[in-house]
Amino acid sequence: MNAERVDASRHARGGFTEKDNPQYRLRYEALAMRVPIGMNALSNFLRHGAWQKLFHRDALHSLAVTAIACIASAGLLYLFHFFRCWRIAAKSGVVPQRASVVLLFGKRLRDGVPDADYARRIARTQHVLMPGNIQRVLLLGGKSSGGHNDETSEAVAALARLRAQGVPDHVEIVLEDRSIDTLQNLRNARALLAERAPAPVVLISSRYHLARCALLARNLGFDAELCAAEDGLRLTPRLFARLLLEAGYAMWIEVGTRWARLLGHKRMLDEVT
């Protein structure tokens, strides 16, 4: 809103009011701009990262089928996936048993630095590397906020944190800094590992995220074990909300994959395999 519009509004009312006060005018203009600014921010958010896939035709198709399946089961399908996500979150260990390759899943950065969840994933990775059984670590995650040239990728942020904490000399570190979601993390990791003989991998992420990681890794043919960033599962409202969301993701992936295979829909199947 410009000064001319404010003045025109004032004269239309037939006189001066408290809105003629410069401080009030600044507040009024800020309020008027808040909605479009918020809408622009939402639009930018939906155009980048995993959310952009929501508007793909095949994604909407599989989402509709998943919703129908959930309704037809009276919600039991969703409850099944919720309890499976909960069980994986609660039961996953923190010490790899057989893998020699680590896949560390990135997470959206906050002002260019890892948030608390991502910091715990990085710290767990550093702890796992110290005994000497791990030979290679892939740091997964690109510039999920939009890919600006001056933006730090999730993988680079993890590398900086790992180097500060200390990494054994024998460990080979590989950066995968082009992916924007969990599926792309795993697809790109698979391509990087394809040049070598197949080996078991350990997937390191937050407990609430592990069920989705395991499901997608299975679809992509990984021999994977899970490793949780947190020492244990601590029930909080935030964690409960994340598990509710992850259960929806898992249900969508599972139903969408089965539906695509039933139809022989290669393009849709390519979205998750």
Secondary structure blueprint with pairings:
Layout: H1 3-12, H2 22-47, H3 57-72, H4 76-91, E1 101-105, H5 116-129, E2 136-140, H6 154-165, E3 172-176, H7 182-193, E4 201-205, H8 210-219, E5 224-228, H9 237-263, H10 266-270
Parallel strand pairs: 1-2, 1-4, 2-3, 4-5
Helix pairs in contact: 3-9, 4-9, 5-6, 8-9
Radius of gyration: 23 Å
Please report which band the strand proportion falls in: under 5%, 5-15%, 15-25%, 25-35%, 35-45% or over 45%: 5-15%
Structural class: alpha/beta
Low-confidence stretches: 1-20, 22-49
- The CATH topology of the domain at 94-232 comes to Rossmann fold
Q: Assign a percent range to the helix content.
A: 40-55%
* Chain-averaged pLDDT: 82
- Let me know the largest β-sheet: 5 strands, parallel
What does this structure look like?
The longest helix is centred in the C-terminal third of the chain and has 27 residues. Helix 8 links the parallel strand 4 and strand 5. The N terminus is likely disordered. This protein is 54% helix and 9% strand. Among the domains are: 39 residues, no CATH class; 139 residues, HUPs (Rossmann fold, 3-Layer(aba) Sandwich), CATH 3.40.50.620. The chain has ten helices and five strands; from the N terminus they run ααααβαβαβαβαβαα. The radius of gyration is 23 Å and the shape is globular.
